[in-house]
Amino acid sequence: HRLDKDTSGLIVVAKDIDTHEALSEQFRNREVFKQYIALVHGEIEAESGKIDAPIAREKHNRTKMGIRGHGRNALSLWRVKKRFERFTLVAVEIKTGRTHQIRVHLAHIKHPVVGDETYNSGRDNNIPDAKLRKAIKELNRFFLHAEKLSFTHPKTNERLNFVLELPQELLDFLAIIE
């Protein structure tokens, strides 16, 4: 369980080996609920959808992932939270935990994450509004945040649910585009 370098939000950390093994089993069995908030380029027409596309490393760039028929299965469910003139704010629940999964999946449906220079094919730089281009550059990160995390406590068997609101820099960016 990890977050990409420029992603904020919740993460669970085990303090001992037994807890680690129990949590790892929950992740393997897809019993952990993970929901992210992402601001993407473009106006998504549908209210919700699913992206079921396998992910593997790019052949010529080993640090980049892509949709590949031979890749590992990856499933992301998304729903629109709010629409803006050039952007859409979405909640994304990941059913699998592949490297760069949300970023790759959203780029695959032609709605890459704002601030993600790896997968957005220069869309940040092609925005006609200079003030908006500057705001994205100054954001200096992806607009991707791990908002909700839920799992069963390995020792008490209690279901734990955590929610972390968007950090201030992402709230400030939303204020700019409203």
Q: Unreliable segments (pLDDT under 50, ≥5 consecutive)?
A: none
Shape: globular
The strand count comes to 9
What average pLDDT do the residues reach? 93
Distance between the termini: 33 Å
Rg value:
17 Å
Backbone structural class? alpha+beta
Largest sheet properties: 7 strands, mixed
β-strand amount:
25-35%
Per DSSP, the total helix count is 4
Helix/strand order, N-terminal first: EHEEEEEEHHEEH
Q: Please give the share of residues in helix.
A: 10-25%
Oligomeric status: single chain
Short description:
The chain has 178 residues and is of the alpha+beta class.
Structural notes for this entry:
- The chain has helices at 17-28, 101-108, 130-139, 168-177; strands at residues 8-9, 33-41, 48-52, 55-57, 65-67, 75-83, 87-94, 144-152, 159-163.
- It is an alpha+beta fold and 178 residues long.
- Strands 1, 2, 3, 6, 7, 8 and 9 form a seven-stranded mixed β-sheet that branches.
- Strand 6 and strand 7 form a beta hairpin.
- The longest helix is centred in the N-terminal third of the chain and has 12 residues, at 17-28.
- The mean pLDDT is 93.
Provide the fold topology.
Layout: E1 8-9, H1 17-28, E2 33-41, E3 48-52, E4 55-57, E5 65-67, E6 75-83, E7 87-94, H2 101-108, H3 130-139, E8 144-152, E9 159-163, H4 168-177
Parallel strand pairs: 1-8
Antiparallel strand pairs: 2-7, 2-8, 3-6, 4-5, 6-7, 8-9
